[in-house]
Amino acid sequence: MEFLSWLENTDTVTWIRESTSLLGYTLYLSLHTLGLVFLLGPVVIIALRMTGLVPPIPLAPLRSFFPLMVGGFIVNLASGLVLFSTAPVSFVRNITFLVKLTCVILAAAMLWRFLQYVFRGCDVPDVAIETPRARRLFAVSSALWVVAITAGRLTAYSAYVISRTLGAVTVAFLVAIAAVLIVRALMARRTRDESLPSSLAVSLKGR
Amino acid sequence: MDSALAYWLRWPSIEVFLDTYSWAWPLCEVLHFAGLILLFGAVGTYDLRLLGFGKGIPLSLLKRALPWGVVGFALCAGTGFVFVGGIKSNVGVHPYTVLMTNPWLQLKLLFIALAGVNVLAFYATGMGRVVDALGPQDDVPPLGRVMGAASLMLWLGAIYFGRLIPWAL
Predict the structure, then answer these.
(1) Percent of chain B predicted with pLDDT > 90
(2) pLDDT category, A194, cuts 50, 70, 90?
(3) The complex's ipTM?
(4) B55 lies in which domain range?
(5) Do A70 and A148 fall into the same domain?
(6) Are the beta carbons of B27 and A65 separated by less than 8 Å?
(7) Helix, strand, coil shares of chain A as percentages rounded to 5?
């Protein structure tokens, strides 16, 4: 605790916290969002592929995005440490922040294991991704990212607002899952119709 | 003209909603980020493929993820509209004043508009069809790569300026 309050009051950290310069607080805040989209951008593609919302995009070439993902993670680790240092004493007492931190660590570890398993442990990622282990790892990691990002966004709010918002976020999340299931069912129906000979498709529709 | 814009920008119904439900603003923040990630995941990955990342994925296939980028954009635009239209509830400033005086909001909107122009140019110049016909390992023509780089820079810029907006309110 003594170290944290010393850190908070060092000249450098005070400058970062209070400066209105574009090299101050807002730089680290925006880097933290930019790193996030680089880390999770390719994850979105994998998620769309896994849920069947896009056709089977070949996975192996996604390897060339890994350095960008790792870069995004490092940028977020560094910018996160700077942001933390601007108010460490209150951050370590903030439950929401601690939830976020825990979820980020677990989500990143699960994502790492998923990528290792699908892209390194197997010659054909397109086959590995269909295994229950890959699905489990990816589902857990994705769920943890959702909690981490939600908690991150809510860190600045009071406990009362957070408790109210959690319900709303849960509802929004369930609506999103329902929407995905509906879209997937509609897409499956369309592909089935397309793959049938037209005369047969017409007669099936007629029934 | 100014007063019409000022009238149109302020949404008392949104203000009342935000005043009544304390979860509404933070929920929109969470959804804004979800939209951001969806948008950058679909569009950014496509742009990076134009630039030569992920060779082996045909652009005609990666294109199929773009509608989900549009879903992400719709989430961001919808929640962004709530932020601006209902901002009086949060910081007590009229949205018209914010639009006219906040340089970061202005730059963000400009970058989003330019990203829109870039998309239109991509299809209007026929580049969309050209890259669609490319094989999985093919290089994208220089103009297509320039447009991919422009899109990437414009969306990252929009995210950057977006984070600065609260500091000039």
Answers:
(1) 96
(2) low
(3) 0.95
(4) 2-168
(5) yes
(6) no
(7) 80, 0, 20
Judgement on whether residues A207 and A107 belong to the same structural domain of the protein? no
Q: How far apart are CA A8 and CA A5, in angstroms?
A: 5
Instruction: Tell me which chain A residue has its CA closest to the CA of residue B152.
Output: A38
Q: Which residues of B touch A165 (CB under 8 A)?
A: 22-23, 26-27, 30
Decide if A53 and B68 are in contact by the 8 Å CB cutoff: yes
Q: Are A95 and A176 in the same domain? A: no
| Residues from chain A contacting residue B154 (CB–CB below 8 Å) | none
- Residue numbers of the domain that contains A95: 2-156
**B83-122 residue pLDDT tens:** 999 999 999 999 999 999 999 999 999 999 999 999 999 9
- Nearest neighbour of B62 by CB, restricted to A36, A57, A60: A57
Distance CA(A97)–CA(A86), nearest Å, equals 14
Of B22, B65, B164, the CB nearest to A48: B65
Q: Do B163 and A43 touch (CB under 8 A)?
A: no
CB-count burial class (<10 Å; 0-12, 13-18, 19+) for B144: buried
Name which of A43, A68, A154 is nearest B41 (Cβ-Cβ).
Answer: A43
- Are A71 and A35 part of one and the same domain? yes
pLDDT band of B2, cuts 50, 70, 90: confident
Burial B33-42 (b: 16+ CB within 10 A, else e): bbbbbbbbbb
Shared domain for A182 and A202, answered yes or no, is yes
Count how many domains chain B has: 1
> Encoding tokens for residue A142?
């994705």
